[in-house]
Amino acid sequence: MTDVPLALLVVTALTAAVNVAMAAADLAGARFVLANSAQVGVARLWLPGLAALKLAGAAGLLLGVLVGALRPLGVAAAGGLVLFYLGAIAFHLRARVLHNLAFPAFYLATAAASLTLTTTS
């Protein structure tokens, strides 16, 4: 973990934290998650799998930044999260659910920042 830029640590920790929090909300069946999922056409049955993807992304990010030899895993995890949130935005746009588009856009921004910092560090 030596010589890891502070910006990379902070952004990666933020990205991992928001993904763990959202995965927990998915797994708990939080009211806002169920309502949003129904609005954008995501079946409740998908939520555990989506939560697992978020958790895997968070774990990969953290391992990639904390273990130098696993940096490629961090890049892959960040890239996977970017694709995940692009898909979330596509679901919102397809369903014309724009009132809360800022949330997946924020998660996409954190994942993209993590990807950028991981690949350039």
Summary keywords:
single chain, 121 residues, mainly alpha, 5 helices, elongated, signal, transmembrane helix, DoxX family protein, membrane
Explain what this protein looks like in three dimensions:
The protein is mostly helical and 121 residues long. It has one domain. The chain is 80% helix and 0% strand. The protein contains five helices and no strands. It has helices spanning 6-28, 31-40, 47-66, 71-95, 102-120. Helix 1 packs antiparallel against helix 3. The longest helix has 25 residues, at 71-95. The radius of gyration is 15 Å and the shape is elongated. The chain starts with 5 loop residues before the first helix and ends with a helix. The relative contact order is 0.17. The mean pLDDT is 96.
Short description:
Residues 1-23 form the signal peptide. InterPro entries: DoxX. The protein is mainly alpha-helical and 121 residues long.
Largest sheet: none
Quaternary structure classification: single chain
Secondary-structure class: mainly alpha
Domain module tally: 1
What gross morphology would you assign? elongated
Order of helices and strands: HHHHH
Write the layout of secondary structure elements.
Elements: H1 6-28, H2 31-40, H3 47-66, H4 71-95, H5 102-120
Helix pairs in contact: 1-3, 1-5, 3-4, 4-5
InterPro entries: DoxX
Keywords: Membrane, Signal, Transmembrane, Transmembrane helix
Subcellular location: Membrane
